[in-house]
């Protein structure tokens, strides 16, 4: 739903990329209603696109700028956009810029996707998922306006790094790079695709699928294309990624095995305290107040660490 002024092709490409990403997520959650229904997928894509434009126009109003003033041609436009999403808890959703500043826009986006759901005869959870996606599409548009109206930040170390060529997998592919999140993975896959090299990604062993677009991934290519892929990556912006990060670089979000281990320690301590109390209650044998207090102290210290880690991650 662009305005009457000419829209830069670079901005249209950014929006199309987000529409395609959102549609893939919806198709995965509702394969029969969307993935196997091309016409339905096209209808949903149109509604998502209109919702993004609604959010973009509203975001420009909030940022006191026009669509034509947005710097959509900058080299890191996609990354700058997605950095806003990564600032939300666990990077699960776009920040609620419109929820605070223009909630009526979210209502219009909700109506767009609700109408598409009704036309496709989708009800219940499927309809709710579509409406939620419409609201998020509008918030994505607002976030895009904010990201592109800002002065680009100083260059930061890339999260994507070339990795040593890994062992050949059973399906004949090998690892050639590691990325910090889905946005960086898509960027790197686009570089490889432009060079005619097919690629795919897999989550690392330390990642949690519940993080959705966040979390580390490994990029894989066919074994016979590994050397070519490494050569392409060597000439990309990933060259200096293996250098030591500068002192002002933002810390990497703590996800995966690190946080999971902390939770397991806390759970194990809690279980140990409960078993100690049950032992004393059933056998009448006291293990000692000092031991019990020590276990309780460890439990509280672990919980405090988990809360602190969650706030700084």
Distance between the termini: 37 Å
Q: Judging from the principal axes of the Cα atoms, what is the shape?
A: globular
Radius of gyration: 24 Å
Which residues form runs of ≥5 with pLDDT under 50?
154-159, 239-259
> In what range is the share of β-strand residues?
5-15%
Order of helices and strands: HHHHHHHEEHEEHHH
Structural category: alpha+beta
Put simply, the count of helices is: 11
Question: Can you offer a commentary on this structure?
Answer:
This protein has 313 residues and is an alpha+beta fold. It folds into three domains: 9-149, no CATH class; 161-242, Alpha-Beta Plaits, CATH 3.30.70; 257-312. Helix content is 58%, strand content 8%. It has helices at residues 9-29, 31-35, 38-62, 77-86, 97-101, 103-119, 124-149, 182-194, 226-234, 257-283, 289-312, and strands at 161-162, 173-181, 200-203, 214-222. A four-stranded antiparallel β-sheet has the order 1-2-4-3, covered by helices on one side. The longest helix is centred in the C-terminal third of the chain and has 27 residues, at 257-283. It starts with 8 loop residues before the first helix and ends with a helix.
